[in-house]
Amino acid sequence: MKIAVFPGDGIGPEVTAQALRVLEALPLKVSLLEGDVGGIAYKRHGHPLPEETLVAAREADAILFGAVGDFDCDHLERHLRPEQAILGLRRELNLFANLRPAKVFEGLEHTSALKPEIAGAIDLLIVRELNGDVYFGEKGMRKTDAGLREGYDIMSYDEGEVRRIAIAGFEAAQKRRGRLCSVDKANVLETSQLWRDVVIETHADYPDVELTHMYVDNAAMQLVKNPGQFDVVVTGNLFGDILSDQASMCVGSIGLLASASLGERKTEYGTFGLYEPIHGSAPDIAGKGIANPMATVLSLAELLRHSLGQEELAQRVENAVAKALADGIRGGDLGGDSNCAEIGDAILTRL
Ligand code: IPM
Ligand code: MG
Protein backbone atom coordinates (compact mmCIF):
# COMPACT_ATOMS: atom_id res chain seq x y z
CA MET A 1 0.00 0.00 0.00
CA LYS A 2 1.40 3.35 -1.04
CA ILE A 3 0.49 6.53 0.75
CA ALA A 4 1.63 9.92 -0.48
CA VAL A 5 2.21 12.30 2.44
CA PHE A 6 2.03 16.03 1.77
CA PRO A 7 2.40 17.91 5.08
CA GLY A 8 2.39 21.42 3.52
CA ASP A 9 2.42 24.66 5.49
CA GLY A 10 1.79 26.04 8.96
CA ILE A 11 0.64 23.37 11.40
CA GLY A 12 0.40 20.83 8.54
CA PRO A 13 3.76 19.14 9.30
CA GLU A 14 3.05 18.93 13.07
CA VAL A 15 -0.35 17.32 12.77
CA THR A 16 0.72 15.03 9.93
CA ALA A 17 3.65 13.75 12.02
CA GLN A 18 1.24 12.58 14.72
CA ALA A 19 -1.02 10.85 12.19
CA LEU A 20 2.05 9.04 10.81
CA ARG A 21 2.91 7.77 14.29
CA VAL A 22 -0.57 6.29 14.46
CA LEU A 23 -0.20 4.77 10.99
CA GLU A 24 3.13 3.18 11.94
CA ALA A 25 1.52 1.57 14.97
CA LEU A 26 -1.00 -0.29 12.81
CA PRO A 27 -0.41 -3.79 11.47
CA LEU A 28 -0.10 -2.69 7.84
CA LYS A 29 2.70 -2.76 5.28
CA VAL A 30 2.76 0.74 3.90
CA SER A 31 5.31 2.68 1.91
CA LEU A 32 5.30 6.46 2.11
CA LEU A 33 5.93 8.87 -0.76
CA GLU A 34 6.73 12.35 0.52
CA GLY A 35 6.02 15.54 -1.38
CA ASP A 36 5.97 19.30 -0.99
CA VAL A 37 2.79 21.33 -1.42
CA GLY A 38 1.76 24.93 -0.82
CA GLY A 39 3.99 27.79 0.29
CA ILE A 40 6.85 25.48 1.25
CA ALA A 41 6.74 23.97 -2.25
CA TYR A 42 6.78 27.44 -3.78
CA LYS A 43 9.82 28.36 -1.70
CA ARG A 44 11.67 25.15 -2.56
CA HIS A 45 10.58 24.53 -6.15
CA GLY A 46 8.99 27.75 -7.40
CA HIS A 47 5.51 26.23 -7.62
CA PRO A 48 2.85 25.33 -5.01
CA LEU A 49 2.17 22.01 -6.74
CA PRO A 50 5.45 20.80 -8.28
CA GLU A 51 5.43 18.14 -10.97
CA GLU A 52 7.18 15.58 -8.72
CA THR A 53 4.42 15.98 -6.12
CA LEU A 54 1.80 15.29 -8.74
CA VAL A 55 3.75 12.21 -9.88
CA ALA A 56 3.81 10.87 -6.29
CA ALA A 57 0.09 11.61 -5.97
CA ARG A 58 -0.73 9.60 -9.08
CA GLU A 59 1.43 6.69 -7.99
CA ALA A 60 -0.18 6.38 -4.56
CA ASP A 61 -3.30 4.56 -3.35
CA ALA A 62 -4.16 7.55 -1.17
CA ILE A 63 -2.88 10.95 -0.10
CA LEU A 64 -2.56 12.18 3.45
CA PHE A 65 -2.59 15.96 3.25
CA GLY A 66 -1.75 18.46 6.01
CA ALA A 67 -2.64 22.02 5.11
CA VAL A 68 -1.64 24.84 2.79
CA GLY A 69 -1.62 28.59 3.29
CA ASP A 70 1.18 31.01 4.09
CA PHE A 71 0.84 34.78 4.55
CA ASP A 72 4.29 35.24 2.94
CA CYS A 73 2.78 34.09 -0.33
CA ASP A 74 -0.37 36.23 -0.36
CA HIS A 75 1.21 38.81 -2.65
CA LEU A 76 1.94 36.24 -5.36
CA GLU A 77 -0.12 35.91 -8.51
CA ARG A 78 -3.09 33.67 -7.83
CA HIS A 79 -1.74 30.63 -9.75
CA LEU A 80 1.35 30.60 -7.50
CA ARG A 81 -0.44 30.89 -4.16
CA PRO A 82 -0.37 27.93 -1.73
CA GLU A 83 -4.12 27.27 -2.06
CA GLN A 84 -3.52 26.31 -5.69
CA ALA A 85 -1.86 23.11 -4.46
CA ILE A 86 -5.03 21.71 -2.95
CA LEU A 87 -7.23 23.10 -5.72
CA GLY A 88 -4.82 21.67 -8.32
CA LEU A 89 -4.79 18.21 -6.69
CA ARG A 90 -8.58 18.15 -6.49
CA ARG A 91 -8.87 19.08 -10.15
CA GLU A 92 -5.98 17.05 -11.59
CA LEU A 93 -6.99 13.92 -9.72
CA ASN A 94 -10.70 14.38 -10.40
CA LEU A 95 -11.53 14.33 -6.68
CA PHE A 96 -15.07 15.62 -6.94
CA ALA A 97 -16.74 14.25 -3.81
CA ASN A 98 -15.70 15.76 -0.50
CA LEU A 99 -17.08 14.00 2.57
CA ARG A 100 -17.01 16.08 5.75
CA PRO A 101 -18.52 14.27 8.72
CA ALA A 102 -19.49 16.31 11.78
CA LYS A 103 -20.45 14.52 14.97
CA VAL A 104 -20.29 15.58 18.58
CA PHE A 105 -18.04 13.30 20.59
CA GLU A 106 -19.44 12.20 23.90
CA GLY A 107 -18.43 14.59 26.63
CA LEU A 108 -17.82 17.48 24.23
CA GLU A 109 -21.40 18.82 24.14
CA HIS A 110 -20.26 21.73 26.32
CA THR A 111 -17.45 22.84 24.03
CA SER A 112 -19.83 23.53 21.16
CA ALA A 113 -20.77 27.11 20.39
CA LEU A 114 -24.36 25.85 20.66
CA LYS A 115 -26.39 24.88 23.71
CA PRO A 116 -25.28 21.38 24.80
CA GLU A 117 -28.70 19.78 24.26
CA ILE A 118 -28.76 21.10 20.69
CA ALA A 119 -25.11 20.22 19.98
CA GLY A 120 -25.44 16.70 21.38
CA ALA A 121 -27.77 15.75 18.52
CA ILE A 122 -25.27 16.55 15.75
CA ASP A 123 -24.38 13.58 13.57
CA LEU A 124 -24.27 14.73 9.98
CA LEU A 125 -22.23 14.36 6.85
CA ILE A 126 -21.66 17.17 4.37
CA VAL A 127 -21.08 15.90 0.85
CA ARG A 128 -19.51 18.85 -0.92
CA GLU A 129 -18.91 19.01 -4.67
CA LEU A 130 -15.23 19.77 -5.19
CA ASN A 131 -14.43 20.14 -8.87
CA GLY A 132 -16.72 22.87 -10.12
CA ASP A 133 -18.73 25.99 -9.21
CA VAL A 134 -17.17 29.46 -8.89
CA TYR A 135 -13.97 27.79 -7.77
CA PHE A 136 -13.12 26.56 -11.25
CA GLY A 137 -15.17 28.76 -13.55
CA GLU A 138 -13.75 31.54 -15.67
CA LYS A 139 -12.44 34.30 -13.44
CA GLY A 140 -10.56 37.51 -13.80
CA MET A 141 -10.28 41.24 -13.40
CA ARG A 142 -11.50 43.66 -16.05
CA LYS A 143 -12.64 47.24 -16.49
CA THR A 144 -16.27 48.21 -16.84
CA ASP A 145 -17.34 50.62 -19.58
CA ALA A 146 -17.24 53.34 -16.93
CA GLY A 147 -13.60 52.49 -16.24
CA LEU A 148 -14.22 50.81 -12.88
CA ARG A 149 -12.22 47.72 -11.91
CA GLU A 150 -14.44 44.65 -11.89
CA GLY A 151 -13.67 41.18 -10.54
CA TYR A 152 -15.68 38.18 -11.77
CA ASP A 153 -15.95 34.44 -11.13
CA ILE A 154 -18.40 32.42 -13.18
CA MET A 155 -20.62 29.95 -11.35
CA SER A 156 -21.72 26.96 -13.41
CA TYR A 157 -22.46 23.25 -13.15
CA ASP A 158 -23.31 20.89 -15.96
CA GLU A 159 -25.76 18.08 -15.35
CA GLY A 160 -23.07 15.41 -15.35
CA GLU A 161 -21.23 17.14 -12.53
CA VAL A 162 -24.43 17.46 -10.51
CA ARG A 163 -25.51 13.88 -11.15
CA ARG A 164 -22.27 12.31 -9.94
CA ILE A 165 -22.24 14.28 -6.68
CA ALA A 166 -25.96 13.60 -6.21
CA ILE A 167 -25.20 9.88 -6.54
CA ALA A 168 -22.43 10.24 -3.93
CA GLY A 169 -24.97 11.93 -1.65
CA PHE A 170 -27.67 9.29 -2.12
CA GLU A 171 -25.18 6.44 -1.62
CA ALA A 172 -23.85 8.05 1.55
CA ALA A 173 -27.41 8.45 2.83
CA GLN A 174 -28.14 4.77 2.16
CA LYS A 175 -25.22 3.83 4.41
CA ARG A 176 -26.44 6.17 7.18
CA ARG A 177 -29.95 7.10 8.27
CA GLY A 178 -31.42 7.29 4.76
CA ARG A 179 -32.02 11.05 4.56
CA LEU A 180 -30.54 13.48 2.07
CA CYS A 181 -30.96 17.24 2.16
CA SER A 182 -29.86 19.03 -1.01
CA VAL A 183 -28.78 22.60 -0.35
CA ASP A 184 -28.96 25.21 -3.11
CA LYS A 185 -30.09 28.72 -3.93
CA ALA A 186 -32.63 27.82 -6.60
CA ASN A 187 -34.77 30.86 -5.78
CA VAL A 188 -32.07 33.07 -7.31
CA LEU A 189 -29.46 31.07 -9.26
CA GLU A 190 -29.89 29.19 -12.54
CA THR A 191 -26.97 26.98 -11.53
CA SER A 192 -28.99 25.95 -8.49
CA GLN A 193 -32.17 25.39 -10.53
CA LEU A 194 -30.32 22.86 -12.67
CA TRP A 195 -28.80 21.38 -9.49
CA ARG A 196 -32.24 20.87 -7.99
CA ASP A 197 -33.73 19.43 -11.20
CA VAL A 198 -30.90 16.90 -11.55
CA VAL A 199 -30.99 15.89 -7.88
CA ILE A 200 -34.73 15.22 -8.23
CA GLU A 201 -34.15 13.16 -11.40
CA THR A 202 -31.39 11.15 -9.71
CA HIS A 203 -33.67 10.46 -6.75
CA ALA A 204 -35.68 8.10 -9.00
CA ASP A 205 -32.86 5.56 -8.59
CA TYR A 206 -32.85 5.89 -4.80
CA PRO A 207 -36.47 5.51 -3.66
CA ASP A 208 -35.28 4.27 -0.26
CA VAL A 209 -33.70 7.68 0.50
CA GLU A 210 -35.86 10.53 1.75
CA LEU A 211 -34.94 13.68 -0.21
CA THR A 212 -35.53 17.25 0.92
CA HIS A 213 -34.32 20.59 -0.45
CA MET A 214 -33.22 23.67 1.44
CA TYR A 215 -31.98 27.11 0.40
CA VAL A 216 -28.45 27.73 1.61
CA ASP A 217 -29.34 30.74 3.77
CA ASN A 218 -31.96 28.70 5.56
CA ALA A 219 -29.51 25.79 5.85
CA ALA A 220 -27.03 28.09 7.63
CA MET A 221 -29.80 29.02 10.04
CA GLN A 222 -31.05 25.46 10.58
CA LEU A 223 -27.51 24.27 11.22
CA VAL A 224 -27.40 26.30 14.42
CA LYS A 225 -31.09 26.12 15.26
CA ASN A 226 -31.62 22.38 14.94
CA PRO A 227 -28.58 20.57 13.50
CA GLY A 228 -29.93 17.21 14.68
CA GLN A 229 -32.41 17.28 11.77
CA PHE A 230 -29.61 16.62 9.22
CA ASP A 231 -28.29 13.26 8.14
CA VAL A 232 -26.51 13.80 4.80
CA VAL A 233 -26.30 17.25 3.21
CA VAL A 234 -25.27 17.47 -0.45
CA THR A 235 -24.24 20.82 -1.83
CA GLY A 236 -22.03 22.71 -4.26
CA ASN A 237 -18.42 23.70 -3.79
CA LEU A 238 -18.84 27.23 -2.39
CA PHE A 239 -21.85 26.54 -0.17
CA GLY A 240 -20.16 23.38 1.11
CA ASP A 241 -16.99 25.28 1.97
CA ILE A 242 -18.92 27.71 4.13
CA LEU A 243 -21.36 25.27 5.73
CA SER A 244 -18.61 22.84 6.69
CA ASP A 245 -16.69 25.48 8.64
CA GLN A 246 -19.94 26.40 10.33
CA ALA A 247 -20.61 22.76 11.17
CA SER A 248 -17.20 22.52 12.81
CA MET A 249 -18.06 25.19 15.36
CA CYS A 250 -21.37 23.49 16.07
CA VAL A 251 -19.33 20.39 16.92
CA GLY A 252 -16.95 22.26 19.19
CA SER A 253 -13.70 22.67 17.36
CA ILE A 254 -12.44 22.78 13.82
CA GLY A 255 -9.54 20.75 15.23
CA LEU A 256 -11.78 17.67 15.19
CA LEU A 257 -13.12 17.64 11.65
CA ALA A 258 -11.71 15.24 9.09
CA SER A 259 -12.41 15.03 5.40
CA ALA A 260 -12.14 12.62 2.52
CA SER A 261 -12.01 13.71 -1.13
CA LEU A 262 -12.87 10.92 -3.49
CA GLY A 263 -13.04 10.45 -7.24
CA GLU A 264 -13.87 7.54 -9.49
CA ARG A 265 -10.47 5.84 -9.66
CA LYS A 266 -10.33 2.49 -7.91
CA THR A 267 -7.16 1.15 -6.35
CA GLU A 268 -6.35 -2.43 -5.45
CA TYR A 269 -7.86 -1.85 -2.01
CA GLY A 270 -10.61 0.72 -2.45
CA THR A 271 -11.21 4.17 -3.94
CA PHE A 272 -8.32 6.55 -4.49
CA GLY A 273 -8.68 9.63 -2.33
CA LEU A 274 -7.10 12.59 -0.57
CA TYR A 275 -7.54 12.99 3.18
CA GLU A 276 -7.09 16.22 5.07
CA PRO A 277 -8.20 17.96 8.23
CA ILE A 278 -10.49 20.84 7.32
CA HIS A 279 -8.80 23.37 9.63
CA GLY A 280 -6.11 24.68 7.32
CA SER A 281 -2.59 25.88 8.10
CA ALA A 282 -3.37 28.07 11.18
CA PRO A 283 -0.25 30.28 10.78
CA ASP A 284 -0.94 31.97 14.15
CA ILE A 285 -0.02 28.82 16.07
CA ALA A 286 2.32 27.16 13.55
CA GLY A 287 5.60 25.82 14.90
CA LYS A 288 4.50 26.05 18.52
CA GLY A 289 3.61 22.38 18.77
CA ILE A 290 0.19 23.14 20.23
CA ALA A 291 -2.09 22.23 17.32
CA ASN A 292 -4.65 19.49 17.85
CA PRO A 293 -3.74 16.57 15.54
CA MET A 294 -7.06 14.79 16.06
CA ALA A 295 -8.64 15.99 12.79
CA THR A 296 -5.64 14.62 10.88
CA VAL A 297 -5.71 11.33 12.79
CA LEU A 298 -9.44 11.08 12.00
CA SER A 299 -8.62 11.84 8.35
CA LEU A 300 -6.19 8.93 8.46
CA ALA A 301 -9.08 6.77 9.67
CA GLU A 302 -11.09 7.86 6.61
CA LEU A 303 -8.09 6.95 4.45
CA LEU A 304 -7.95 3.47 5.97
CA ARG A 305 -11.69 3.10 5.36
CA HIS A 306 -12.11 4.37 1.81
CA SER A 307 -8.76 3.85 0.10
CA LEU A 308 -7.25 0.86 1.89
CA GLY A 309 -10.41 -1.13 2.63
CA GLN A 310 -9.49 -1.35 6.34
CA GLU A 311 -12.80 -0.59 8.03
CA GLU A 312 -11.81 -2.36 11.23
CA LEU A 313 -8.57 -0.41 11.61
CA ALA A 314 -10.43 2.80 10.77
CA GLN A 315 -12.76 2.17 13.67
CA ARG A 316 -9.89 1.33 15.98
CA VAL A 317 -8.30 4.69 15.23
CA GLU A 318 -11.60 6.53 15.66
CA ASN A 319 -12.26 4.76 18.94
CA ALA A 320 -8.79 5.68 20.20
CA VAL A 321 -9.50 9.36 19.50
CA ALA A 322 -12.95 9.15 21.09
CA LYS A 323 -11.46 7.43 24.15
CA ALA A 324 -8.77 10.10 24.50
CA LEU A 325 -11.47 12.77 24.43
CA ALA A 326 -13.67 10.84 26.84
CA ASP A 327 -10.68 10.60 29.21
CA GLY A 328 -10.40 14.37 29.20
CA ILE A 329 -7.48 14.85 26.80
CA ARG A 330 -7.93 18.34 25.34
CA GLY A 331 -5.87 20.53 23.06
CA GLY A 332 -5.85 24.30 23.33
CA ASP A 333 -8.66 24.45 20.76
CA LEU A 334 -10.89 22.75 23.34
CA GLY A 335 -9.69 24.80 26.27
CA GLY A 336 -7.17 22.20 27.44
CA ASP A 337 -3.39 22.20 27.67
CA SER A 338 -2.26 19.02 25.93
CA ASN A 339 0.15 19.79 23.13
CA CYS A 340 0.32 18.17 19.72
CA ALA A 341 2.74 15.37 20.65
CA GLU A 342 0.96 14.66 23.96
CA ILE A 343 -2.31 14.23 22.13
CA GLY A 344 -0.51 11.90 19.73
CA ASP A 345 0.80 9.91 22.75
CA ALA A 346 -2.68 9.77 24.26
CA ILE A 347 -4.16 8.38 21.05
CA LEU A 348 -1.35 5.83 20.66
CA THR A 349 -1.75 4.59 24.23
CA ARG A 350 -5.44 3.97 23.66
CA LEU A 351 -4.84 2.37 20.28
C1 IPM B 1 -11.26 23.97 2.40
C2 IPM B 1 -10.41 25.21 2.27
C3 IPM B 1 -10.03 25.39 0.80
C4 IPM B 1 -11.32 25.59 0.02
C5 IPM B 1 -9.02 26.51 0.52
C6 IPM B 1 -7.74 26.32 1.30
C7 IPM B 1 -8.72 26.66 -0.94
O1 IPM B 1 -11.08 26.31 2.78
O2 IPM B 1 -10.78 22.89 2.05
O3 IPM B 1 -12.39 24.08 2.85
O4 IPM B 1 -11.82 26.71 -0.10
O5 IPM B 1 -11.83 24.59 -0.50
MG1 MG C 1 -12.90 25.86 3.74
What does this structure look like?
Helices cover 40% and strands 21% of the residues. By secondary structure, the chain is of the alpha/beta class. The protein has two domains: 1-96 and 259-351, Isopropylmalate Dehydrogenase (3-Layer(aba) Sandwich), CATH 3.40.718; 123-250, Isopropylmalate Dehydrogenase (3-Layer(aba) Sandwich). The strands form two sheets. A ten-stranded mixed sheet has the order 2-1-3-12-11-4-5-10-8-9, sandwiched between helices. Strands 6-7 form a two-stranded antiparallel sheet. The radius of gyration is 20 Å and the shape is globular. The protein starts with a strand and ends with a helix. The relative contact order is 0.16. 3-isopropylmalic acid binds next to α4.
Layout of secondary structure:
Layout: E1 2-8, H1 12-24, E2 31-34, H2 39-45, H3 51-59, E3 62-67, H4 83-92, E4 97-103, H5 116-119, E5 123-129, E6 139-143, E7 149-153, H6 159-175, E8 179-184, H7 190-203, E9 210-215, H8 216-225, E10 232-235, H9 237-251, E11 258-266, E12 271-277, H10 294-306, H11 311-326, H12 340-350
Parallel strand pairs: 1-2, 1-3, 3-12, 5-10, 8-9, 8-10
Antiparallel strand pairs: 4-5, 4-11, 6-7, 11-12
Helix pairs in contact: 1-10, 1-12, 6-7, 8-9, 10-11, 11-12
The protein binds 3-isopropylmalic acid (IPM) and magnesium ion (MG).
Magnesium ion (MG) is lined by residues 241, 245.
